[in-house]
Amino acid sequence: EDQVTQSPEALRLQEGESSSLNCSYTVSGLRGLFWYRQDPGKGPEFLFTLYSAGEEKEKERLKATLTKKESFLHITAPKPEDSATYLCAVTGANSKLTFGKGITLSVRP
Amino acid sequence: GAVVSQHPSWVICKSGTSVKIECRSLDFQATTMFWYRQFPKQSLMLMATSNEGSKATYEQGVEKDKFLINHASLTLSTLTVTSAHPEDSSFYICSATRETGVRNSPLHFGNGTRLTVT
Questions:
Q1: How far is CA A10 from CA A33, A87, A105, B52, in A?
Q2: Which is nearest to A19 in space by CA: A78, A70, A60?
Q3: I need a labelling partner for A22 at 20 to 30 A (CA). Which of A3, A7, B60, B85 fits?
């Protein structure tokens, strides 16, 4: 069974304080790892897809990286508007998307 | 980008009544849509896969007679919660993928429906 574990559960940062969110996974035949952002009361918003170890993607202050066992979402100089829950999900050989519980990020001004 | 619209965004109903939730892909055709349920501080749990023109595929433990799914067109899937009970109160989210035949293209999600059964 595919599993996704995200840590920490919650993270509080000062504006401008860079950090990383971790996503550890076990999956049979990784076909894709996805990062989403979810605001309270909203559906997840797609951020990145990573397909193979060593791959990296960037968008504004966010950078996602992937190894064979985990992915990191690096946030550089975060702003209060980056506050949200960040979800990691994987698709394996069964083509089903398995989500982690998410990491709630709070950025203080 | 791809847009998935979900309606209503919230609904309150009495125990024993049925509620219908609509999910539309606004700028693309979706042969497959997915319905998820999310409890507070929990993962999104896949309930069922909705296939246009055929029966939905339900995940283990999801009652197909309670959660009726219809995917009558390439842009619309509906989830009907029948004879709702307070334990059905949850956040329901639909999703669709824009591309087919492409390796695991990302799902795009609707904004969810908060269902409260009193």
A1: 21, 12, 6, 39
A2: A78
A3: B60
Compute the distance between CA of residue A60 and CA of residue A53 in angstroms, rounded to an integer: 22
User: Which residues, including other chains, have CB under 8 Å from residue A17's CB and lie 6 or more apart?
Assistant: A77, A78
**CA dist., res. A63 & res. B110, Å (int):** 24
Residues linked to residue A22 through DSSP beta bridges, in sequence order = A7, A72
Confidence bin at B56 (pLDDT 50/70/90): very high
Q: How far is CA A91 from CA A57, A96, B12, in A?
A: 18, 5, 34
Closest-CA distance of chain A to residue B80, Å:
19
**Cα separation, A21 vs A39, whole angstroms:** 16
CA distance A109 to chain B (A): 24
Closest C-alpha to B22, from B64, B68, B65, B80: B80
The torsion of the CA quartet B18, B55, B22, B103, rounded to 10 degrees, works out to 140
Amino acid sitting at position A100? G
Question: What single DSSP character describes residue A82?
Answer: G
CA distance A97 to A37: 16
Best of A9, A90, A98, A99 to substitute, by most chain B Cβ atoms within 10 angstroms, is: A99
Segment A57-99, tens digit of pLDDT? 999 999 999 999 999 999 999 999 999 999 999 998 877 889 9
Question: What's the angle, vertex CA B69, arms to CA B66 and CA B70, rounded to 5?
Answer: 145
